[in-house]
Amino acid sequence: MPKTSIRTKNLSKTYDNQTVVSNVSINLPYGGIFGVLGKNGAGKTTFLAMLMGLITPSEGEIFIFDKSLKFHKYEILKNINFQSPYIDLPKKITVMQNLIFYARLYDVIDRKKKILKLSEDLFITDLLDNIYGTLSSGQKTRVNLCKALLNDPKLLLLDEPTASLDVSTSEFIRKYIKSFQKKNNSTILITSHNLEEIEKMCSHIIFLDKGKIKFDGKKNELFKQNKSSSLKDIFLKDDK
Amino acid sequence: MINRILALLIRYKNISFGSFPRLLSIFYWPTVQILFWGYFTNFFMSNGSFGIWSALNIILSAVVLWDVLFRGQLGLTMSFFEELWSRNLPNLFITPLKDIEMVYGLILISLVRTLIGITPAVFFANYFFYFHLFELGLYLIFLFLNLIIFGWSIGFIVSGLVLRYGQAFEELAWAIIFIILPFSCVYYPLDSLPNIVQNIALFLPTVHIFETMRLILIENEIILHNVFIIIFLNLFYLILSILFFLKMICIARKRGLLFNQGE
């Protein structure tokens, strides 16, 4: 088992003289649920995108499972997956066609069996023959999560996994993600504006502010440091 | 009321004139039509010796073969655009899919789409007009392959531009083929064009392809030198366009564009 899941060294991203992520160095152990917090424009999504190789860093290095992302990209990507409510699947084809396509890209063995198993777990079996574009946002989230779990990722990146979902669907998604992590001992990195969600799910928090790390450590340390018992209070205090 | 109509007018003006490709699309059609039909009429007026059936056979062969190029290019760009329109690029590029594998996939789907698209056209031309494209014999495969390859080259350039500069360049997917149409000598020989234009047109493989097609249909002969020029130009443009497309993906990663594309 690798010692670390994510290690970044002086990671920076600059667009036309505007720095979005600045000198971020983190070292996350293997296994666990980690939260990335920050206000709008703090650099959370750019940070996540760099970890997946979607955005090339301006400076710094990324190591996933102790291997350099730059030199072992495709080997690493086999074990990563991602879900975001802002990234869709092709709308004109069925859910099953979409899932089969991604199962092929990840070289999943016994594709149909895997999809049916995950569909049962996520209650989307009835949706498999539906056109993806006709689904509601709650249904799309569950289908996207199914896509994100097809390759049993060792590193799962979730960008606001419960955005625009009703309370019960959100709770279901949170429970499912937690049980998936326990079962597979994966590393899950979540960004969310839902502070309660991060509080409930994550033991370790990375707090980004204007692209820089403001805090990186255990949740309890953050509370202790800020003499507060909730993330919401810390955020609001930070605004003053 | 006037204010609201004026608001709409300003809005549509901003959309239409806001980018070079959109601006280009406003005036290229009339210009291209005039150029094309002008050269076409000149050629047939000065070659009255052609029988009506010979002329029809040449025109229909050219129509079908030109469509191979169009379908080839469109099949590639539309398949790529589907990923952009459905905001699916991030999902695609975080899989172990290599950039070059995407290139292979786009080429293959374009080939399939072109074969499916062109078959009914050949059937109808054959059935209604007693036109036999297959008179071109094995050369038909050569001409087909080279036209579709040039279509792929154009397709990769357009896809790369859209990825890098955004949806304003989508207009090019429809327009670019018709911009090169008058200079490709599809329905008339190269010497119908003015001398200066001829020198530029010679760099287009389509000119040599359609010259070869006419030579086979009229004289039943082929010039080997032309065959080599077609292969050389096509390979050159294909390699160049693929490298361009791959470079644009690389730039898109640097500028964070893979995340922000879509409808």
General description of the model:
The complex is a heterodimer of chains A (240) and B (263). Chain A has 9 helices and 10 strands. Chain A is of the alpha/beta class and 240 residues long. Chain A folds into 2 domains: 165 residues, P-loop containing nucleotide triphosphate hydrolases (Rossmann fold), CATH 3.40.50.300; 68 residues, no CATH class. In chain A, the strands form 2 sheets. Chain A has a 6-stranded mixed β-sheet, sandwiched between helices. Chain A has a 4-stranded antiparallel β-sheet with strand order 2-1-4-5, covered by helices on one side. In chain A, a hairpin with a 2-residue loop joins strand 9 and strand 10. Chain A starts with a strand and ends with a helix. By secondary structure, chain B is mostly helical. The model of chain B has no long low-confidence stretch (mean pLDDT 86). Chain B starts with a helix and ends with a helix. Chain B is globular and about 60 Å long. Chain B has one domain. The chains are: A alpha/beta (240), B mainly alpha (263). Chains A and B meet through helix 1, helix 2 and strand 6 of A and helix 4 and helix 10 of B.
